[in-house]
Structure formats: C-alpha cells, structure tokens
Automatic annotation (TrEMBL):
<dbReference type="InterPro" id="IPR011051">
    <property type="entry name" value="RmlC_Cupin_sf"/>
</dbReference>
<dbReference type="InterPro" id="IPR014710">
    <property type="entry name" value="RmlC-like_jellyroll"/>
</dbReference>
<feature type="signal peptide">
    <location>
        <begin position="1"/>
        <end position="20"/>
    </location>
</feature>
<keyword id="KW-0732">Signal</keyword>
<protein>
    <recommendedName>
        <fullName>Cupin type-1 domain-containing protein</fullName>
    </recommendedName>
</protein>
<feature type="compositionally biased region" description="Low complexity">
    <location>
        <begin position="105"/>
        <end position="120"/>
    </location>
</feature>
<feature type="region of interest" description="Disordered">
    <location>
        <begin position="99"/>
        <end position="124"/>
    </location>
</feature>
Length: 158
C-alpha cells in the first residue's frame, strides 16, 4: 500500500479507536435511580419541595433525576424537549397553556408561576411523557404526594 493511501487509513483507524475509547454505556435500573433520589428527597424537604441533579451530559442531550413533593411553576424550554420517565409517585402534567407571570430565567428558558388553561394529563410510575421544545408545561403534585422521575433533555433547536 502506498504512503498516500496509508496515512488517511491510519487517521480513520486512529479516530475510530479514540472514539471507541471515550464512548461509554450508561445504565441505571429504576431501583438504582430511586435509591440515588433519596438525597434529592432530603434536599427538597430543606428547600421548596423540589430537587434535581444532572446525571450525565452528552453532545445534544443530558439526563437528570428529579424529585418533587410540591407543585412546580410553569416552564418553557425554547431549544430542549423534555422526556420524563415517572419512576414513582403521581402528578398531573399541564401543557400548552399560557404562562402566568412569564419571565426569562436564562438563555432559551422561560418561567412563570403556573400554566393557565392547558391540557391536563395524570401520570404515575411507569409512564413516559414527551414535551417538545417550545411547549409550556407544569408538574402539579397533589397534596401529600410525591413524584420521582428520570429526565432526558434533548436539544431540538439551536
């Protein structure tokens, strides 16, 4: 093989090798996530009734774990879709209505005190919810209840 052909081939193999070495599989069982969420439960009790943590970041998405013992405010993520996997508990997800007391909370992030007149969907352990980028949403937790959920935030727009 000539040197002209060998150099590009070596570059490709090197790139594939580096990529294979830096790639990793992330795997969590529901039981592992619920165990990990115990400290979020404690943080929520000391704060406003909600706590979350980022688990891993990737080029166009990231994963989180969240716990709520109280309802959250309204949210809108301009560039990110939310995928929720409800691990435990129950809540109502309100989507699509206007944000009350709307204000920007950061680049591409809008918050409000609530979502008014949106569609309501009851969710419980085992349910999966997809909220596209640009859709208002709010998690309502019934009095005396809690909800623990795994979140995948997927970049849909730049």
């Amino acid at each position: 093989m000539s040197l002209k052909k060998l150099i590009p081939a070596a570059a490709i193999l090197f790139t594939l090798g580096v990529s294979a070495q830096t790639m990793k599989l992330d795997h969590w069982t529901p039981a592992q996530l619920l165990e990990r969420a115990q400290h979020l439960r404690q943080q929520a009790a000391q704060g406003d009734g909600s706590a979350s943590e980022t688990l891993e970041k990737y080029p166009h998405h990231y994963t989180m774990l969240a716990f709520r013992s109280h309802s959250g405010g309204g949210e809108l993520h301009e560039n990110y879709a939310d995928l929720f996997y409800i691990l435990d508990g129950n809540a109502t997800v309100v989507t699509g209505g206007p944000l009350v007391d709307r204000h920007n909370s950061g680049p591409g992030e809008v918050r409000g005190s609530s979502v008014s007149s949106g569609s309501r969907q009851e969710v419980k352990g085992g349910d999966v919810v997809h909220i596209p980028a640009g859709m208002t949403h709010q998690m309502i937790v019934p009095e005396g209840s809690t909800v623990t959920y795994f979140v995948v935030k997927v970049q849909e727009k730049e």
